[in-house]
Design brief:
The chain has 349 residues and is of the alpha/beta class. The chain has 14 helices and eleven strands. It has a four-stranded mixed β-sheet with strand order 8-5-9-11. It has a three-stranded antiparallel β-sheet with strand order 3-10-4, with helices on both faces. A two-stranded parallel sheet has the order 1-2.
Length: 349
């Protein structure tokens, strides 16, 4: 809930750092300009570019009064999209944006930030379990994991439902049985658990694979399906998909982060919450527009019944979540918190 929101990464960074002798650290913009280079796991065609990463970049530059300037290169400009997370960790770039650190492969705890199968329903719920309520704060687990990988988690956005976009009709779990769909990380766990056959492939290969019949659909953020032209090759959008609130993260190389002044770090941490809600709003606006483009192309949007969503959520919690928890100690703690969060939600209803 919005009245409970607070973001305490500034506690970790030091809202006002104390230096030797008790004097306060610099409390204003430095005279030097820091120039960073970011490469996300995607290019300008992805909804996360204009609605997620670029607004955050602009907010950082404004908050630091122009003392941090960020150049963003598209995936492939410096390294491939799949290598972008590792490049930021290694210091080859200063930052990265993407999903669950490429669906959690490089950092299992990234799956917690990406979003749990049938977990949080919307932006407010996701914020509450991640940062807003001191009883949960799954975000601390992810931040610790990021620091252990030489990164600092600095941005987050809800891209809306990560739905199923298919050439076959889905009205129930059973309709997924045996169908080949592009799915990675937690998506693949979900699809396999529901009886489907997950196929791993790069985003740029999905359109052709569906057109040729190699796969029968994909899991994708709803607001981005028109950017990828999926409406040309799929027939159905199945809502709310496997994840009603799929997220994207932004990470900064830890050496680049620590090289900033205390004031600059505090300014950047200070925009985390406001950019989260603003970019999430931008993504939400794109969801209905993308679905309408699908309808106009002759496709059909299927909203699963409340009973079917409840079945899918129960099966996800019982069978998908334990597989996510098994990936790391941090994941196990995060999944336990998510379970408590859902239990508290149900008891409050």
């Amino acid at each position: 809930m919005k009245e409970t929101r607070f973001f305490a990464t500034t506690i970790m960074a030091g809202a006002v750092a104390v230096v030797a002798g008790g004097a306060f650290a610099q409390d204003g913009p430095p005279s030097e300009i820091t120039e960073w280079v970011f490469q996300p796991a995607f290019d300008q065609t992805d909804a996360g570019w204009a609605n997620g990463l670029i607004p955050w970049v602009e907010a950082v530059e404004a908050a630091t009064q122009g003392t941090v300037v960020i150049r963003v290169e598209p995936a492939g400009a410096l390294v491939s999209g799949s290598e972008a997370f590792g490049a930021a960790a290694a210091g080859l770039t200063d930052g990265y944006a993407g999903w669950g650190s490429v669906y959690g492969g490089d950092m299992p705890e990234g799956m917690l930030a990406f979003g749990m199968a049938m977990g949080a329903n919307d932006t407010d719920e996701a914020w509450e379990v991640m940062w807003g309520n001191p009883d949960y704060r799954v975000g601390d687990i992810i931040q610790d994991a990021a620091h252990a990988r030489n990164l600092h988690w600095a941005g987050w956005t809800n891209q809306g439902p990560n739905a199923m976009f298919t050439t076959f009709r889905v009205d129930s779990i059973e309709d997924l049985e045996g169908h080949k769909m592009r799915a990675g990380g937690p998506q693949a766990i979900f699809h396999a658990t529901m009886g489907g056959a997950p196929v791993s492939m790069n985003g740029g290969e999905i359109y052709t694979a569906i057109k040729l019949g190699t796969i029968e659909g994909t899991y994708w953020d709803t607001g981005g399906i028109d950017d990828m032209s999926f409406h040309e090759v799929i027939d159905y959008a199945i809502m709310p998909g496997w994840n009603p609130a799929q997220h994207q993260e932004i990470f900064i190389n830890l050496q680049s982060w620590n090289a900033l002044t205390d004031w600059q770090r505090t300014q950047i941490d200070g925009i985390f919450e406001e950019t989260y809600f603003e970019t999430s709003r931008l993504h939400a606006e794109g969801v209905e527009e993308a679905l309408q483009i699908l309808r106009d192309a002759g496709g059909e949007v299927i909203h699963l019944s409340d009973e079917e969503v409840a079945r899918m959520r129960e099966r996800s919690i019982e069978e998908v979540w334990p597989q996510v928890a098994a990936a790391s100690e941090g994941n196990a703690r995060g999944v336990a918190i998510y379970e408590q969060f859902l239990a508290d939600q149900e008891s409050a209803e």
